[in-house]
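Task 17 of the worksheet. Students: predict the tertiary structure of the chain below and write it out as structure tokens. Keep your answer in the requested format; marks are given for formatting as well as content.
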Amino acid sequence: MSASRRQFLAASAVAAAAAPSLFAAGDDVLKVGLIGCGDRGTGAAVNALQADKNVKLVAMADAFADRLDKSLENLSKKESVAAKVDVKPDAKFVGFDAYQKVIERCDVVLLTTPPQFRPLHLKAAVEAGKHVFAEKPVAVDAPGVRSVLDSCEAAKKKNLSIVSGLCLRYDSGFKESVKRIHGGAIGDVVTLFANDYRGGRWEKKRQPDWTDVTYHMRNWYNFTWLSGDFNVEQHVHFLDVCAWVMQDKYPTKAIGMGGRSVLSGPEYGNIYDHFSVVYEYANGARLVSNTRQHPKTKGDMSARVLGTRGNALLSERTNGLTIKSDKEDWVYEGPFNQMYQQEHDELFASIRAKKPINNGAYMSHSTLLAIMGRMAAYTGQEITWKMALDSKEDLFKGVLGTKAEDPLPAFDWQTKLLHPPVSVPGVAKYS
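Model answer:
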């Protein structure tokens, strides 16, 4: 997310899980496990530990030991949560199966790994009866989305909370703005614009001793099979805002374009550096989505909504929440909350109250909305919502060189990976 008018805690994503029958008024310790110890995960752990008076971080997992150790060091130094960090040496787990060991030890699971692994980890957490905080996006392809939808339905049956990292839905100003739009402040919505214009992005050059898997994992953002491309990994935020404005109704089809015009070196993997996608709704409304990541360029992350009686701006910048209409103009001047913290406050309150929250539908469908746009740009074809949801393209199996219908082969640090090509519109095929 961009720097905003508020001071947000910059941090890694996490997910929380806990068996609902165990906790009553708040006197029992909720044991938290962190799966994915990057910056977003570390930040999410801070938020989780600040969300409830009686919680402890008891287990951590990451693919890399250095990432885990740095996260634990930073958490142990954080004054507001240090006393709640209780991760013993035997509760630090490294490797691709480490998530299973964390889930076994905790009540609340924070899922903040690269999104390729979110469906697998969410399924395991729900099957084990845990409440979950799942960072966005929740998948990188349609099979992953379908898995997450199934897991979230299973969570409902088990009375488990699933809270999404689509944090703008937990922002007080955005909530008030969307409430007013839903109340008719700008009339019927005709057109939406979702912008994600930002500077460059981080990358990691391959080191001589790195295997294929090590390199891809260290440089995960730049590989579609791990991140979903930045249209999915980052732009999902404002695509989700547009879905929220449309009362969680999703487009019927999309057509678009994209490519690599600036960030084209091998260190940038196989993802694009710009997209432009037009989505069409059943009622004829359009969502125009434009994104780019080019160094030394002007940023703009926002959603703009045009209606029959006015327009609205939804942005994190100062005075970025406004409505202009034939009735009256409005600027949000209310209290500003810390949306990252709010997500966890509501998650833990739901656990204590035994009133589960389930964000599963919108976090899955907004992820699919972003994937749908990527598919349209990669292939150069019109992609319908049904095509996006029914797609059999499995990006993990693709990088392993196996077919979607094949079982997963063994996977470890020595596995040879195909170097995924940059998609060429008109050549890349829908599958």
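Marker's comment: The chain has 14 helices and 15 strands. The first strand starts at residue 30 and ends at 35.
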